[in-house]
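Hey team,

Filing this mostly as a record. A colleague (T.K.) asked me to run one chain through the structure pipeline before their review meeting, and I want the input and output archived in the tracker in case anyone asks later how it was produced. No errors, nothing strange. Just documentation.

Input sequence:
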Amino acid sequence: MIRDTLQTIQNVALSPLDLIPQNDLREKLVDLVLCGVPSHVHATAKSSLSDLRTALLEKNVKNAKVVVFGGGSGLSNIVGGDSRHEAWTTNPFHGLKEIFPRTQSIVCITDNGGSTGELLKDLPLIAIGDIRHVLLSSIKRSHLQKKYSITAIEAVHVASLLSDIFNLRSQEPLKIGSVEYQDLEENIKHLPLTLGRYLTFLLESLFNDQRLAGTLSRNHCLGNLLLVAAIYGEIDDTVSNNDLIHHPDILHFAMLKGLNALAKDLGANERAVLPCTSTPAQLRVLYTNGVEIIGEHKLGTSRRGYPVDSIHVDYCHEVNVFEEVIEDITSADILILAPGSLYSSIIPVFKVPSIADAVRKNKTALKVLISNLWVQAGETDITIADPERKFHVSDMIKAYEKNIPGGTQGLFREVLCVSLKDIPGSILQRYAVENKIPIFLDKDVLLQQKYIPIECGIYSRDALEKRGVIQHDPQTLALAIKTLFNAQCCFANDTALIAGNESFEVIDTHNKTKLILPFERYRHTVERIGNLKIDWIGAEKTKDNIKKLNEDIVDILWDHPIIPLSHLHFFEGIQIIEKQFWRRDQRWDNVFSFFDPDDKYIKIRGDQISAKSTLEVAFLIALGESLLGDYAQKKIMINVVVDHIPLGKAYHLYLKDEKTRTSFLHTEQLRTFLLLARMCSTDDENHFTRLVNKGEGFTPPGLLMGLIYAWYIDNRLASNIEYKMSVTKISHTNLIPEEMKMVERRSKMIAFFKSIIFGGTQ
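Output structure:
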């Protein structure tokens, strides 16, 4: 037996590549390029591996066209490093843009937070924050040197100044003559003359173009304002923002010209960064419990406790895609899906009609998905397959498969993942303490689905050492892509592999109902709230406190784009009642606001408006109540006594006649809600009852409407309802029949709010 085994071993032919520990050939080649030839191999193998590594590194890729899809920091980091970090200014020229000079980015436009969200209040534009972020990271040394006749060292200094200028975030609105403005002028003076003149022109345009006046009243990232100025500089100054609402084609072409002009002057490629569409859009997120939220910002901050079921994108008008974007995709040699927020980065890009099809039509390009590193709260912290476990790479791909029209077939095959084996265990333990969990690579599942996982050390050692963070390293990642591209000829025998699973239901691309522009929504909201009657009981009403209340209410409504404008027309004013004058019966609740159907005022206890967080809860609950309107003719509570024993109370609700009541709900919808609120119908269609057992609490229909309204918008606003709704999280196999009925009622109530209260209106 020993002799036979030894003979078998002696018959094995060992290739030098077998000395590299990875199993897959792609992984071996990437490891060889990134880590070098293993030190322990014999001389002959070392020579062969060294020659192979040299060939992979030296093969020219300067003419290879690369298109990268994504948004925000994930995309900008792999293109050329994250320009927001101080370390970038010392080494701004690395990443894909340096190894592949013809790199272009197609960017997501659904962000509605931060400075970008503030711009949407004043201008009929797409979200441009991610464009600014990626554009700065796309600046190239060679372009700066050639365009401005400067040295390599001077080019680094120019990039550093541009980072300071474009990333400037003012704590106050920017004003001419302020210390901040003077510092800005000083930075511009140190730029090459023609570049400085161009930025000065853009800066002056912000103050001279009346269409941009509103933006100067808010705190912004200056780079966003400069992008806006570049775009508006391509639009005749006789064309107003209102004109642009009705003529989106004007903005479409101005955006292309303005962004290209800015890119060239900053030292990036022409068409270095373009939006996936010029059409304003918003993200709509459906959770597995049936709740739907609107806005990318809400996705990042929501803590629903349920996995995301599906993602939708709604557009403000017919979707416009630049012809140049489609041309670049179809002619690309390499197509990369960048890391980033799972649901708010890649998926919205591929929801845009024609983009996914353009990728599929390109049959020759290397197509790579770069996997995310970490679980992201609100997005990838819970899986649909098993809410008890953490996210796997296959869960990411399932999300793409389900939400991208047509699935992932033809979009990518190679999946590039960071090797956790290379990261010190102590670092992973420290991250775990901070509740940062890596997304695990489940290779076997990916291979079964005919994807090709490539696990390699593409995280940044420098970022880990200097900033204590684990992120993709732009340079090593670019080298990994170069290796795969240059070695494509070696993998010709597996071209029959077709990645993608056709078993998933294809989610519709977008809501066919035209979305109102955020710019219009904000304007109508300000007008409506500004026209409300505001009263104070027990305190002096002043212009200042009215102004602050109006601004706070507008901010609350802006922060929740799911609230239709139509909801603002069922109350006529707001009354603030100081605590000593508050007379509302609080036996059933501790909610210090309500809608009064007698005068159609929302009434809020005075101490609730001192902080926006408590005002938000109070206002939204009362706003929800106002949708029922003056629906009730009479409400009475009658003691129930049997054989002299008090058993409880009977609550009787008598509705007004349909012709005389004002309500957001029509008769059948109102009836549905009351039955879901556990009211019982009687022979009289306008009479409903509810038995309240002795010692039990009771939430009247009006208050319940308000509480669920606030809970649906943000479950953290109504904790007293959250505990009731959480029963839907429990596995149905563990529930008794009465609990199953409760789950069914809760689910029907959620569906009612989704379709009737928040559905189909603007």
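Quick notes for T.K.: The radius of gyration is 30 Å. The mean pLDDT is 88.
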